[in-house]
Amino acid sequence: MPSTQPFTYTALDRSTPHIRLIAILPGHSPQISCKFHIHQLGADAACPPFTALSYTWGPPDPTSEVLITIDNQSSPVRKNLWCALSSYRKKTNEGTFRGLVWIDALCINQQDILERNYQVNKMKVIYSQADTVLIWLGPEENDSSRLLRFIMTMPPLTYSPDQGPPSKYARFPFPSEPTIKLLMPRPDFTIDDLFQELFDQTLGQAFSAMFQRAYWKRLWIVQEVLLAKKLLILCGDQLCEWSSIVSIFSELEYLGQILGQDGLPIDKSSRDQTPVLQLKRLQAQVMSSRARVILEKGTDSNHSQESGERWELHELIKMWFHQECEDPRDRIYGLLGLAQCEISADYDKTLEDIFVDVLASEAPKLSDADFTLFAANLTNALYLNPSLEKIKELGLITGLDLEYALSFLQDFIVLPPWPSEQDHTAEDDG
Known about the structure:
This protein has 430 residues and is α/β, with parallel strands linked by helices. It has 19 helices and 11 strands. A hairpin with a 2-residue loop joins β10 and β11 (238-241).
């Protein structure tokens, strides 16, 4: 029987890069059982292939926690993780999934500050060496399974001559340098070819809802997605390739840029055709979601991995500070796997300690004007809505008038244009 005592971890050897991996045991009962395995990471280590889970923890609510067993001990997990484990186990029962999984909430002893520091500083290695990063979008809702099945049956949207005859949705590569990503529509291509079927199957709302899920708002997913060698999406019990989601997202973005222009024919001769207004609304909803930048950056994740590309920490903070996390320190620590800097995660440090450390790290790379802007961004990242007293305190640390700098700092989100009254009139008159 599982123990009712607090979960006891076997300590990791921190002299070498060891991690805990978890085996989710097959079964059909409501009780989920798992087993820990400790392995060493590294080029010369014999670590077996493993999957790293990317998910959102969800709000802390002890009343909704569910008990699982690990090594015959009870361990409480939040509801969203329990749903992910349940779905993963179902796939294990079917033979779709096999092997070990790394899950931060379970594989890190969150109560041990030294271990937490050590493991967070190894996140880049963990997610870049994982055989697959499995994105858990959450349980089935808003017709998500039917939508993902539709997306998985879509033919390729891009075309090259060696692939045989193109699908009716395909677009030819732009005849220029191979690095240019612009694509040209086929002469007979219309906006209705792809999204008409989506609307015919009443999946427009499901498509929009998928990009509004809480997953896309979480800060930690940024490096988890960008560090991955391979990405796979699990939502409810439905699997979907990351590339398929990116493909249809990119198509919607592409159509939004040239919608109604001569470069893309729009057939208005039939009332059965996809209304331009309906497509514009969908484009506006999806492009204004938090998922947008993650999907755009995730498109190039393989290139970034191969080239060893890393970003400056101040650039990452500016781009991602609006993402959500429970501990404000993680708005820095959750980006370190992507950053070119000497900062390390240390949960013994206060926000003020981290503020000073990051400013000292980034100041030599910035002009005076950029440093002032970055100090304001960093203040927002660590404190979100700082009091006037806190702003003055941080201003003394930096030697800047942070109150003045923050008054000019705004978080702009560029949205695709919403349909105008003229669009409404044109649709009504069509």
